[in-house]
C-alpha cells in the first residue's frame, strides 16, 4: 500500500523526468540528434627522420594519448566502431579510433611501446606484399602484436598502390592475394580494409564490396557519423603539419555533418568543365547551410550555394592540377561555445571529401553537372 508521502514523491520524480525530457527535446540536447560519431585518426610513423612530412614527433604522439586520458575521451577498437555503426547509435561524445597506415617497422619501434604503456586499442593496416621488406614489419612481428587484445590488423591490399590504376581483374587478384597471404600467416581472415591514398572509383567500391569487409576506411577528413550510409569511412591525417595537440583535441570534441546524396558519387573527376560543382544533402538537424564554410587544399575558402533548406553546392571555380585535392567543410555552433559543452553538443562539425583529377581542368565552359 503506497502512502500519501510516497505518492507525492513519486509524482515529483515523474514531473522532473518529464521536464528533463521536454527540455532536451525542445532545446536540442537529445544526444541521439547530435551525430557525435567517432573521430578516427590515421598515423604513418613516429619520429621518422627519413620521412619527416608523414611522421609526427614522439612528444606530440605522447600528448595525444595523454589527452585521451586527461579529457575523458574514449578510445575504441575497430570492432567497437563496427558494432556502433550496426546499431546506428552512440551514447557519448569524445569517442576516437587510432589507426596506423602502412605496416612500417617504425610503428613497432616507436609507437607501440607508448600505446602499450597507455593500454589503448589501435588498428594497423598492412600492405601484405610489403611484409618483411626493408622498413616494414615481418610476419613474426605482426604475430607478436596480435597477441595483445588491443591490436587489430587490417589490410591495404597487396602493396601500397593506387587502386584506380588497376584493372578490375588486377584489383581482384590483388585483394585475393592479400587475403590469402594474410590468412595463411595470421590464421584468420582480415575484416578491415584501408584504401591506399584514399582514392577510389565506382569499380573499386564494387569490387571491395564483394569481399564483405566489416569496415572500409579512406583518408578524407571527417568524423564517422554512426547514421551514415557511406561505404568508405573518413579519418583525419596526423602528420607533422597537422599533429598539434590543440588540433587533436578540437577533432576529438567535434561532431559530424550527416551528409548524403553526394554528386559526383565517387571522387574521380575526368575532363570536367570548369567551374564544376559538388552537391550534397546535409541531414543534421538545426544546421544553417549558410554557416557551413568549405576549404579546398592549396586554394583556401571556396564558395558555396544553398539550393534548398538541406541541399548545398560547392563551387570549384579555379582550374585544378592533376592529382589529389582535399575539400573540408566545417560548421561552428556559437550557441555551444562554453568550456566542456562539447560533451552535450559538438562545437565544430566536419565533412571532408577527396577529389582526384585525372587531367588538369582547362575547359572554361560552365558546368552542367547536376548537384
Can I get a quick summary?
This protein is an alpha/beta fold. It has eight helices and 21 strands.
Name the features.
371 residues; single chain; 8 helices; 21 strands
Describe this structure in words.
The chain has helices at residues 4-27, 58-70, 78-87, 105-118, 139-146, 168-186, 202-209, 245-252, and strands at 39-43, 45-46, 55-56, 74-76, 95-101, 122-127, 151-157, 192-194, 215-217, 232-233, 236-237, 255-256, 259-263, 268-269, 276-282, 292-296, 300-302, 304-306, 311-316, 323-332, 348-357. With 371 residues, it is α/β, with parallel strands linked by helices. Strands 1, 4, 5, 6, 7 and 11 form a six-stranded parallel sheet that branches. Strands 12, 14, 16, 17, 20 and 21 form a six-stranded mixed sheet that branches. Helix 2 packs parallel to helix 4. The N and C termini lie far apart (65 Å). The relative contact order is 0.13. Residues 12-34, 335-339 and 360-371 have low confidence and may be disordered.
Assembly type of the chains comes to: single chain
The shape, in one word, is globular
Q: Which runs of at least 5 residues are low in confidence (pLDDT < 50)?
A: 12-34, 335-339, 360-371
Q: State Rg.
A: 22 Å
The count of helical stretches stands at: 8
As a percent range, the share of helical residues equals 25-40%
- The counted number of beta strands is 21
How much of the sequence is in beta strands? 25-35%
Q: What are the secondary-structure elements, in order, as H or E?
A: HEEEHEHEHEHEHEHEEEHEEEEEEEEEE
* C-alpha termini separation: 65 Å
Sketch the major β-sheet. 6 strands, parallel
| SS class | alpha/beta
Overall mean confidence score, pLDDT: 84
Amino acid at each position: 500500500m503506497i502512502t500519501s508521502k510516497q505518492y507525492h514523491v513519486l509524482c515529483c520524480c515523474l514531473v522532473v523526468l518529464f521536464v528533463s525530457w521536454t527540455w532536451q527535446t525542445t532545446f536540442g540536447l537529445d544526444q541521439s540528434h547530435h551525430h557525435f560519431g567517432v573521430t578516427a585518426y590515421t598515423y604513418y610513423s613516429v619520429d621518422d627522420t627519413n620521412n619527416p612530412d608523414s611522421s609526427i614527433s614522439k612528444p606530440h604522439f605522447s600528448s595525444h594519448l595523454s589527452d585521451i586520458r586527461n579529457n575523458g575521451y574514449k578510445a575504441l577498437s575497430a570492432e567497437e566502431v563496427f558494432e556502433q555503426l550496426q546499431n546506428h547509435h552512440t551514447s557519448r561524445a569524445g569517442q576516437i579510433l587510432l589507426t596506423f597506415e602502412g605496416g612500417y617497422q617504425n610503428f613497432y619501434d616507436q609507437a607501440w611501446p607508448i600505446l602499450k604503456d597507455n593500454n589503448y586499442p589501435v588498428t594497423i593496416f598492412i600492405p601484405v606484399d610489403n611484409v618483411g621488406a626493408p622498413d616494414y614489419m615481418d610476419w613474426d612481428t605482426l604475430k607478436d602484436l596480435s597477441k595483445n587484445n588491443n591490436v587489430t590488423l587490417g589490410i591495404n591490399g597487396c602493396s601500397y598502390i593506387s587502386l584506380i590504376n588497376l584493372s578490375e581483374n588486377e584489383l581482384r587478384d590483388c585483394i585475393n592475394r592479400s587475403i590469402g597471404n594474410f590468412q595463411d600467416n595470421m590464421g584468420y581472415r582480415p575484416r578491415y580494409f584501408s584504401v591506399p591514398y584514399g582514392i577510389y572509383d565506382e569499380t573499386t567500391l564494387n569490387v571491395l564490396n564483394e569481399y564483405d569487409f566489416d569496415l572500409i576506411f579512406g583518408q578524407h577528413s571527417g568524423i564517422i557519423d554512426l547514421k551514415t550510409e557511406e561505404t568508405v569511412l573518413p579519418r583525419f591525417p596526423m602528420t607533422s603539419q597537422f599533429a598539434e595537440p590543440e588540433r587533436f583535441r578540437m577533432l576529438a570534441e567535434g561532431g559530424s555533418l550527416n551528409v548524403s546524396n553526394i554528386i559526383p558519387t565517387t571522387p574521380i573527376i575526368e575532363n570536367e568543365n570548369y567551374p564544376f560543382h559538388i552537391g550534397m544533402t546535409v541531414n543534421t538537424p538545426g544546421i544553417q547551410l549558410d554557416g557551413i564554410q568549405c576549404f579546398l587544399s592549396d586554394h583556401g575558402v571556396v564558395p558555396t550555394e544553398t539550393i534548398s533548406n538541406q541541399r548545398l553546392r560547392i563551387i570549384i571555380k579555379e582550374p585544378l592540377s592533376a592529382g589529389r585535392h582535399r575539400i573540408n567543410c566545417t560548421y561552428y555552433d556559437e550557441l555551444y561555445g562554453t568550456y566542456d559543452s562539447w560533451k552535450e553538443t559538438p562545437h565544430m562539425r566536419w565533412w571532408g571529401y577527396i577529389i582526384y583529377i585525372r587531367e588538369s581542368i582547362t575547359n572554361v565552359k560552365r558546368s552542367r553537372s547536376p548537384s
